[in-house]
Amino acid sequence: MADKPTYYDKRSDFWKRHWEQAKPYDHYLEGHDESLTVRWYETMERLPELQHEQAEKLRGYNRELNMLMYAGVWCGDCSRQGPMLKKIKDAIGPDANLRVIDRESSEELQDELRIVGALRVPMVVFLSEDFWEVGRFGDRMLTTYRAKAARQLGRDFNAGILTPRAWRMRWLNGSILLNGC
């Protein structure tokens, strides 16, 4: 135990290996069918410019930031979030790197990035210049799925994603309205 350094990341080799398999953002898009990438380019065109204050907050760090985006070119959420990450990377400047790795490229990476046991994209892993994991961002929150289910299936449909209390409240509210009370 005494030989172990105070700060280390036992997964840095794992992340470096997957970083090397990933492609720079533009190369990732160039390697796919245009019918799938058009949404990515359209989103980029619609994104507003960062405000001066926002851009200033992103600049000025004296560390390199590597952003590894785990994605699928076919994914609507990826086509919205990928261009935003690219804009952030561009605002940071040369100290930021963005690479994209396809969800199907590595079973080992799939297992590392599962959410509630499932394969979900997008996921972004933020890495230091030494490929130490700094943080993760990705996929939708459960509240987003609940709202989407309510919009698409109706509020009275039990999709199994409402809490028991929320389901009871929906049922009670529905029965009160149905009874005219």
Commentary on this structure:
This protein is α+β, with helices and mostly antiparallel strands and 181 residues long. The protein has two domains: 12-139, Glutaredoxin, CATH 3.40.30.10; 143-178, no CATH class. Helices cover 48% and strands 15% of the residues. It contains eight helices and five strands. It has helices spanning 12-21, 25-30, 34-46, 52-58, 76-92, 107-112, 142-153, 164-178; strands at residues 23-24, 65-71, 96-102, 123-127, 133-138. A five-stranded mixed β-sheet has the order 1-3-2-4-5, sandwiched between helices. A hairpin with a 5-residue loop joins strand 4 (123-127) and strand 5. Helix 3 crosses helix 5. The radius of gyration is 21 Å and the shape is globular. Residues 175-181 have low confidence and may be disordered.
Descriptive terms for the model:
2 domains, single chain, alpha+beta, Glutaredoxin, 181 residues, disordered C terminus, 5-stranded mixed β-sheet, 8 helices
CATH topology name of the largest domain: Glutaredoxin
Please give the number of β-strands.
Answer: 5
Query: Strand order across the biggest sheet?
Result: 1-3-2-4-5
**What is the approximate shape?**
globular
Number of helical segments?
A: 8
SSE series: HEHHHEHEHEEHH
The largest β sheet comes out as:
5 strands, mixed
The CATH homologous superfamily of the largest domain: Glutaredoxin
Average residue pLDDT: 85
Q: List segments where confidence is low: pLDDT < 50 over at least 5 consecutive residues.
A: 175-181
| Beta-strand content | 5-15%
Structurally, the number of domains stands at 2
Helix/sheet category: alpha+beta
CATH class of the largest domain: Alpha Beta
Helicity level, as a percent range? 40-55%
- CATH architect. name of the largest domain: 3-Layer(aba) Sandwich
Gyration radius, rounded? 21 Å
Distance between the termini: 69 Å
